[in-house]
Write a structure and sequence with these properties.
This protein is an alpha/beta fold and 412 residues long. The protein contains 13 helices and 17 strands.
Length: 412
C-alpha cells in the first residue's frame, strides 16, 4: 500500500468528526489499572492520512461497541494511539514505546508494508500480538501476526477471469515498481494464462512517476483487449487521468487491484473512472444486517459514510477478530490469542464473514466484483470465502510454528 496524493476534498465534511484525532493519545474511559490496552499506530496526518484517518475512526467505533457490550474479560478497552505523521521512522519509535512504556496488550497498526516490517520484529520479540489489517502482497509467515486484509490471489482469482471474459484475452499489465506491484503483476500473469489469456507486456513504474505519455503510446501500439493495473499512489493517479484525456479509456477497458481501496475513485471524475473493474472485500452497497448496522453506527458517531473505505473496514473487522480471539482464548497474551486463532476464529463484519486460517493467520474473506459508476462501486457478483491461497503456498505455522519470514511467493 502506498499513497502520496492529498484527498482532503474527499475528507471535506468529516473534519468535525475527526476532531478526536487531535486529542491526547490515551483515549476512552477514565484510565484505570484494570483495563485492557489496545495500541494503535497509524498515519493519521501527513501524506497517508486519507488512509489512516478512516482507519482510526473505524478502530474507535469498534472499541466503543465492544466496551458498550461489557468489554473483554470483564474489563474495558483503553486505546493508546500514536500518529506517525506518515514518517516511517516513527513507527519503530512508537512500537518500542507501546511495548516498553505503555505495555499494551495488542497492537493494531501499519498501512504500508514498510511500516509493518518496521514494527513486526519489535512486537514479536515482546510477544505482543500484532494485527495488520490492510491489503498487502502476501507471504508474511509469523505466528505473532494476524492479517485481515485482502491479498493479491484473493482478488486476482476473481478479477482477472472476469475481465478476460468481459473484454478479451490480450492483457497489458501496469504495476508499481516495488514488492506489492511486482508480486501482484505475477499473479495477474498467472490468472490470465489460467484463463486462456496472455500478457503482451508487463511494465513497472517507480512511485514518483507521473508522466505516462510514452506508456500510453506504447499501449496504443500493442493494442491489448484490456489493461490490468496495480499502480499505487498519488503520482500514479495521473495515469487514469491521462488515459481518459487521451481518448483511450472507451477503446481499451481496465481492471485494477488498487484503485478505490482508499476512495481514490471519488477523486476521479465519473468520465475518468466509470467502467473500471475492481474486486475488494468491502462493498458499500451490500445489504446485509452487519453492513447496515455498521453504517448506521458510523453515521451516528461521524455523520459521513463517504469516508468509509476498504482498509477502514479491514481495521474494524481486525479489532472484532481480536476481541473474539480474546473471548475464545480466555486471555489477551500471545499464547491465548494463538490458541484461539489456531482453533478457528471467525466474525461477521461489514465485509461479510471473516475467518482466520489457522496455518497462515491470514483471513479468508468474501470478495465482491465491482465496477465504478458515477464515483460509486456497483456490485456485479459476489464470491464467498476466498482463502489466502498465495500465503498458503508458502506458510504453514502448524508445521513450522517458529517461522518468521516474509516469503517471496513463487508463482507457476
Amino acid at each position: 500500500m502506498n499513497n502520496t496524493f492529498n484527498r482532503r476534498s474527499v475528507l471535506k465534511g468529516g473534519v468535525a468528526a475527526l476532531g478526536a484525532l487531535s486529542a491526547p493519545s490515551l483515549v476512552g474511559r477514565a484510565l484505570a489499572a484494570d483495563t485492557i490496552k489496545l495500541g494503535s499506530i497509524l498515519d493519521t496526518s501527513g501524506i497517508f492520512d486519507a488512509y489512516g484517518k478512516p482507519m482510526d475512526m473505524a478502530m474507535r467505533l469498534a472499541v466503543k461497541q465492544i466496551n458498550a457490550d461489557g468489554g473483554l474479560e470483564g474489563k474495558q478497552i483503553e486505546i493508546v494511539s500514536y500518529d506517525t505523521q506518515s514518517d516511517m521512522a516513527l513507527y519503530t519509535q512508537y512500537a518500542q514505546q507501546l511495548t516498553r512504556k505503555d505495555k499494551t496488550d495488542v497492537v493494531h497498526g501499519g498501512i504500508l508494508s514498510a511500516s509493518r516490517e518496521a514494527i513486526r520484529q519489535i512486537l514479536r520479540k515482546a510477544k505482543m500480538p500484532y494485527f495488520y489489517n490492510v491489503q498487502y502482497e502476501g507471504g508474511v509467515c509469523d505466528r505473532n501476526i494476524v492479517v485481515t486484509g485482502v491479498t493479491p490471489a484473493q482478488q486476482g482469482e476473481v478479477l482477472v477471469p472476469a475481465a478476460i471474459k468481459k473484454w478479451g484475452k490480450k492483457v497489458y499489465i501496469l504495476a508499481a515498481d516495488y514488492n506489492y506491484g511486482q508480486i501482484t503483476a505475477r499473479w495477474m500473469e498467472k490468472y490470465a494464462k489460467d484463463n486462456g489469456g496472455e500478457a503482451v507486456s508487463v511494465d513497472f513504474f517507480p512511485l514518483d512517476v507521473a508522466d505516462f505519455g510514452s506508456t500510453i503510446a506504447k499501449i496504443q501500439q500493442a493494442a491489448p483487449d484490456l489493461i490490468l493495473s496495480a499502480l499505487v499512489g498519488g503520482n500514479h493517479m495521473s495515469f487514469y487521468r491521462q488515459w481518459a484525456a487521451s481518448g483511450m479509456k472507451d477503446k481499451i477497458p481496465m481492471a485494477s487491484t488498487t484503485l478505490g481501496v482508499g476512495n481514490e475513485h471519488k477523486v476521479l471524475t465519473p468520465e475518468e473512472g466509470n467502467g473500471i473493474l475492481v474486486a475488494y472485500n468491502y462493498a458499500p452497497t451490500i445489504e446485509t444486517p452487519a453492513n447496515e448496522a455498521f453504517q448506521k453506527a458510523w453515521t451516528e458517531d461521524y455523520g459521513d459514510t463517504s469516508l468509509i473505505h476498504e482498509i477502514a473496514v479491514s481495521n474494524y473487522q481486525g479489532i472484532k477478530v481480536w476481541a473474539e480471539a480474546v473471548r475464545q482464548g480466555g486471555g489477551t497474551d500471545s499464547e491465548a490469542i494463538n490458541a484461539a486463532i489456531e482453533s478457528g476464529v471467525s466474525i461477521v463484519g461489514p465485509g461479510g464473514k471473516v475467518s482466520i486460517d489457522p496455518k497462515t493467520h491470514h483471513a479468508t474473506l468474501d470478495v465482491h466484483l465491482m465496477e465504478f459508476e458515477n464515483q460509486q462501486m456497483k456490485v456485479l457478483e459476489n464470491f464467498d470465502q476466498r482463502p489466502p491461497v498465495d500465503t498458503q503456498a508458502v506458510c504453514d505455522l502448524s508445521a513450522n510454528p517458529d517461522d518468521n519470514t516474509q516469503y517471496e511467493i513463487k508463482i507457476d
